[in-house]
Amino acid sequence: MADHYEVLGLDRQASADEIKKAYRRLARELHPDVNPSSDAAERFKQVTHAYDVLSDPQQRQQYDLGGSGGFGGASGFGGFGDIFETFFGGGQQQRGPRSRRERGQDALLRVEVELDEIIFGTNRQIEVDTAILCSTCEGSCCSPGTSPQTCDICRGSGQIQRTVRSLLGNVMTSSPCGTCRGYGTVIPSPCPTCAGQGRVRARRAIPVDIPAGVDTGVRIQLPGQGEVGPAGGPNGDLYLEIKVATHETFSRSGDDLLATVEVQMADAILGTTVTLPALDGDVPVEITPGTQSAEIITIKERGITRLRGSGRGDLKIGVQVVTPVRLNSKETELIRQFASSRRPVPPQFSTFQQGIFSKLRDRFLNL
User: Which CATH number applies to 4-91?
Assistant: First the structure.
C-alpha cells in the first residue's frame, strides 16, 4: 500500500493547510470528468483516501504510529463515496429526461375452486379491480386537443445544474428538475378523467383457464393481465393463487381422491354392492364377504387428472364396519347362537397397520 504522504507529494511534517492544497491540486488533475483514463481513476481513489486519513487528526496520528490508516480498514475508501456523490453526482454522465410511461405493478388474486372443478380443469370469468387505460386521453395524460410542453426551467433536459463551492473549488452538480420532476415536460392541461395519470381504476372481467390437477397454493401467471402503467405504460402480470374448497365427502392425497364408506356388520360379513356418487359420475363399489374395517378399496383412474403428466390418480375408499349398539332381545339371541356355533377366538393385539389407512384414520375417528 502506497504511503499517504508520497501519494500527496508531501513530507511527514506537512501542515493541515498544505495537505488540503495538495489534495485540491491533485483532485482537479485526476478527477474522472477531467481525466478519463483508468490509471487516473485509480490514482484519484488513492489521493482521496490519503486525504481522508491525513486530514483527520486522530486518523493521521494512528497512521504516523504505524497503523493502516483509516478506521474503515485498508480496503475501504472512507469518505471517497460521500465526497464523490456530493460534488460529482457519483461520476455519472448527465442523463436525459425520464419517461412518464412506466410498467404497471403485478397483482395477486386468490381464487377458490371446487374439488370437482380440478378433476378435468375448468374455465372461469374473474373480475379484477385494477388500473386500465384512460379512454379520454388514451394514456397521454393531457386534455383532448392539448399536449405536454417543454419545461421552461430545465429546457427539456429533466435536470438542473448548480455550481457548488467545495474543497476542489467550484463544482457543477446535477439533480432532477423540481418543476417537471425529471420528465423534461409539463402538462399544462391535465386530462379531467384521470387527473393526468393516463389510467383510471375500473373492474374488468378476465377469462381464466384453470388446469386440471392444481392444488391449494399453486400460482397461475397471466402475463400482461395486471394493471396498466402510468401514462399508458405496459401492463404488469396477474398471479392467481389457487385455494381448493373443502368437500363434504372427498379429500385429496396428491392425485388420489379419498373417501370412507360405512358398512353394516351383516353387509361386511355377507358382502354387498353400494353406489358412490363420485365427482364425475356414480361409482359401483363392491364390498366382498368378510371385509374388515380399515380395508382400502381402490378404484383405478377415478381420481384427479395429473397436473404434469398423463392419466388420473385413483379413488381410494376406506371401509368402516359399523357394529350395532342397540339390539332387541331376539337380535341378541341370534348373535349368541351365531357366536356359540363358532370356535371361540379370544381378542388379540396386533401391530397397527400403516399405509394409506394412516392417511384416513382421522376421518375414521370422526365417524
Answer: 1.10.287.110
